[in-house]
Amino acid sequence: MHIDHTGIAVRDLDEAITFYTTVLQGKLVDRYTNTAIGVETEIAVIHVGDDVIELLLPTSPTSPIARFMKARGKGVHHVAYRVEDLDESIESLKRDGVTFLEDTLRTTAKGRRLIYMDPRHSGGVIVELCDYPTIKQ
C-alpha cells in the first residue's frame, strides 16, 4: 500500500492550479468534471515531482466536497492509498474491525475503484482506498 494521491478541496480551481503549477512547479496532467450523482466535482490532477494532487471544486451544493467545505472549509479533503486489490483489502480490514462508508464504493470514469473508510478510525482524516484493475500496477 502506498499513497496514490491527496485530494484538496478548493474554492477557485484556476487559482489553485496556478499555485501548484507555478509556485510548486507541478504539471497539470488532467482536468475534468465528474457529473455522477452524489459526486459532482470538477477535478484538476497535478503532478508535483512523484506526488499526485487532485484539486477538487464542488459543482453542486450537495456534492460531498461542498458538504465538506461547509463543515471544515477548504483544504485537504482526503488521502488516497493505492492497494493491489480493493475487494481483498476491504475484506481484510473489515475482519480487523474497520468500517467503510459503503455508499462511496464506486468506479470512476477514469477506471479507479475506490471506497472511503469511516473517518472515526483515522482521527477524523478521510482515507480513500483505491485500485486500478484495468491498469497494471
What report would you give on this structure?
With about 140 residues, the chain is an alpha+beta fold. It has a single domain (about 1-130), classed as 2,3-Dihydroxybiphenyl 1,2-Dioxygenase, domain 1, CATH 3.10.180. It is built from three helices and eight strands. The chain has an eight-stranded mixed β-sheet. It is globular.
Helical fraction equals 10-25%
Put simply, the count of helices is 3
Q: Which sheet architecture does the biggest sheet show?
A: 8 strands, mixed
CATH superfamily heading: 2,3-Dihydroxybiphenyl 1,2-Dioxygenase, domain 1
Tally of domains = 1
- Work out the strand percent: 35-45%
Global mean pLDDT: 94
- Protein structure class: alpha+beta
**Any idea what the CATH architecture is?**
Roll
Distance between the termini: 11 Å
Element string (H = helix, E = strand)? EHEEEHEHEEE
For the biggest β-sheet, the strand order reads 2-3-4-1-5-8-7-6
CATH topology description: 2,3-Dihydroxybiphenyl 1,2-Dioxygenase, domain 1
Number of strands: 8
Query: Given the C-alpha coordinates, what overall shape results?
Result: globular
Low-confidence stretches: none
| Radius of gyration, whole Å | 15 Å
Please write the CATH class name: Alpha Beta
Family: Belongs to the methylmalonyl-CoA epimerase family.
Keywords: Metal-binding
GO molecular function: metal ion binding; methylmalonyl-CoA epimerase activity
GO biological process, one term: L-methylmalonyl-CoA metabolic process
Secondary-structure map with pairings?
Layout: E1 2-9, H1 13-23, E2 27-34, E3 41-48, E4 51-58, H2 64-72, E5 75-82, H3 86-95, E6 100-107, E7 113-117, E8 126-131
Parallel strand pairs: 1-4, 5-8
Antiparallel strand pairs: 1-5, 2-3, 3-4, 6-7, 7-8
